[in-house]
Amino acid sequence: MIQTALILGGLALLVPLAWVALSSLKRPDEILQLPVKWLPDNFFNFNNYVQLFSQYDFGRYIGNSFLVTGIGILTSLVIALLAAYAFAYYQFPFKEPIFLLVLALFMVPQEALVIPMFLMVSGAGLNNTYIGMAFPDLFTVLGVYLLRQFMEGIPYSYVEAARVDGASEFRILTRVITPMVAPAIVVFIIIKFMFTWNTFLWPMLVAQDEKMYTVTVGLVNFAGSEFNQWNLINAATMISMIPTIILFITLQRYLVRGVAMSGMK
After folding, report:
1. Domain spanning 16-25+46-263, CATH architecture
2. pLDDT per residue as tens digits for the range 50-72
3. Gap between the Cα atoms of 200 and 63, Å rounded
4. pLDDT beyond 90 at 19
5. Residue 185 host element (H or E)
6. Most buried of 50, 131, 142, 252 (most Cβ within 10 A)?
7. Distant-in-sequence, close-in-space partners of 154: CB < 8 Å, separation ≥ 6
C-alpha cells in the first residue's frame, strides 16, 4: 500500500516535467491551443532549441552557470575537507561549542545575509565577476557537517599509522582520508550542484552585465512581459534541468551509499 502511494506520488510529480518537455517541442500556437493539447504535432521539432542558441545567448548562460557552480563546489569542498578533518581528528579548546556555532549557521537563511554580503562584494570590487557570483557558495556548513560525520566513522588508527610512517597532515588528508570519504564527497557535490545551479537571487544582484547572467537569471528574463514565447521558455527550462538530472541519475547509487554511511537519518 505504501509503495503504491509512493509510486503514484512520484508519477504525479512527473506530470509538470512531462508537460514542459512536450511543450518544448510545440509551436507557439500549439501551446495556446484550447482545449489543451498534450502531445505536439511533431515529436522531432527541435526548432525551439536551435532558436535558443542561434538567436539568444543561452549557451553563454549555461557556461556561466557551470563556471559559477564549479567555483562554488571546488572552493567549498576544499574548505569543508580541511574543517572537517580538524574537527574530527584534532583536539583543541572549545571544539564542540565552535562546531555547534558553525552548525547554527544552518538556521540563518541566506536571504538574511544578502545585504551584508553584497556590501562586501561591492567593496571588494567583485561585482559582475564570477568570484563575486560564487561568493555565498565558497563555504557551506553542510559540507563540514557531512564530512565530519563520515570521518568520525573512520578508525583513528589509520591516522596514527600514517603519522608514525612520517606522513604530513596534508598527505594524510589527501592520500588516506579523502579516498575513504569519497561517498560523502559525492553526496556533497550533488547537493551543492543542485543548490548552486538553481540559485537566482544572488546572481541577479551581482551580475550587472547580461553576458554574466546564469541560466536561472536568463530564464526569468525570458519569462518577462516582453518575452511571451512559451515554446522557447519551455525549451530553456528543459535545458536548464538536464545537467542536474544527468548528475543525479549518474551518481544516485553513491548518493544513497553516502547518506547511509555518513550517519544522516
Report:
1. Orthogonal Bundle (1.10)
2. 888 888 888 899 999 999 999 99
3. 15
4. no
5. helix 182-197
6. 142
7. 177, 180, 181
